[in-house]
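User: Please fill in residues for this 118-position structure.
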């Protein structure tokens, strides 16, 4: 995937989140998997955490996760782990809530696929 495509995705996530269309923002953020370019990958993680940070309740998180397709679930789980690896305490709590919702919906296979992905 090209850098331009990822940048368009990030812009779309920002616009959707700014319009409080959080389900659509989460789907868009999860549409493309993490890229190789480290700086761009950090921007992707920030986009996901920005959306997650706006989801105030566990029900809102679960509703958002329930709308995802299997590939999007796997991508989101990858972003959860990337976000947790940033060791930012403020991000950890919402990311763990997303992790829980994803695991309930997609099962343990989602975790295995995220951890084993290259």
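Assistant: Residues filled in for all 118 positions:
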């Amino acid at each position: 995937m090209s850098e331009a495509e990822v940048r368009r995705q990030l812009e779309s996530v920002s616009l959707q989140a700014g319009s409080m269309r959080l389900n659509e923002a989460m789907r868009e953020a999860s549409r493309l998997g993490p890229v190789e370019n480290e700086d761009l990958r950090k921007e992707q993680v920030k986009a996901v955490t920005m959306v997650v940070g706006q989801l105030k309740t566990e029900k809102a998180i679960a509703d958002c996760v329930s709308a995802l397709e299997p590939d999007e679930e796997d991508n989101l789980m990858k972003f959860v782990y990337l976000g947790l690896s940033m060791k930012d305490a403020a991000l950890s709590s919402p990311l763990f809530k997303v992790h829980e919702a994803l695991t309930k919906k997609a099962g343990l296979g989602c975790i295995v696929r995220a951890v084993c992905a290259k």
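For context: The CA atoms of residues 75 and 84 lie 14 Å apart.
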